[in-house]
């Protein structure tokens, strides 16, 4: 993220909770066309998180690829996203917000279209890397663009932005399933078309703005010297391993469990399940996580929710032959992941005196490496030790994440005592949701 440079509430972001729930909710839908254009593009961008999930088995089958090869679509995407996140703050400070948005969108359009035209899983794996670069550039600057484009109170535009993220998280798997039931190529082509519309809308409607303050290209890498940020980044590496074990690996045992019961699940069935997952994640990330962190504090919320996620992964290991059991566990996992994504990023923002954009970029860059490794490991592990093994390893990595968090708690004194009185301003809360859900 590259949308903020301090911890103090600003006139553009600070909004009392009652006001956000009242008059500003109506204001959220009375925005300039530029704000709507960015919100539309953000929705499509966040659809990409779950868009590929329903078509992984189809890609594996039709392109004669192993599940491991199909899951590498996540690995290449996340690895390049991780590297890019270290430099997005610097890029937007050099290029300006509008130009960064357009470059990011153009890259997604080109690489998504090329994915649709690919003839091998190897080509798609390579092209997904370019897609990851584009998405990192776009998402890292979208919130700043929305705040800058609004003509009224910024909190109204931020509510609209949060709604766009939630909608994208929920609709992505469903759209992937609907289009994927026709062809595995269709979700890629659909994303290219929708992002192309977003590109044209932003080009036409968003005014050219002044460039943000200059940021060093090494600022995010240097930020990892901060012990609090390093503790949270290491926690997130292991957490994201569990996250992407659930997201990237689950379509394969889910389809196998359905087939064992004589049902043809297919892309539409997988899409429907992960629609429930995405909807659950969106609801808890936008609505539930802020309530829990204010009531119980950031660290207690993280430790308890991580523990529950480890239990969900163990449940998936035990229930991997039960279609109904897997569906229930995946949706419950979505509820927990939404809380964890937002709470972890909120902790990153509050635990150090680093500029929020720099801290968030450094944290995101490290944590996505865990997400990139998980899909590459899950396939070979399942082939060698059985379908439950990836979930068991995922549960273990969540336990390690808890140990990392507790062991480094002495570095998190700035947030250790925050409870009911703790709150982020509206813009910082949206940044936490964005950085938490960004993939």
UniProtKB/TrEMBL annotation:
It is a multi-pass membrane protein. Residues 34-412 form the Major facilitator superfamily (MFS) profile domain. Residues 1-20 are annotated as: Disordered. PROSITE patterns: MFS. The keyword ATP-binding does not apply. The chain crosses the membrane at residues 34-52, 72-90, 102-125, 131-151, 158-180, 186-206, 227-249, 269-289, 296-318, 324-344, 365-385, 391-408. It is found in: Cell membrane. Pfam families: MFS_1. The keyword Transmembrane applies. Residues 1-18 have a biased composition (Low complexity). InterPro entries: MFS, MFS_dom, MFS_trans_sf, Tet-R_TetA/multi-R_MdtG-like, YfmO-like. Keywords: Membrane, Transmembrane, Transmembrane helix. This is MFS transporter. It comes from Brachybacterium hainanense.
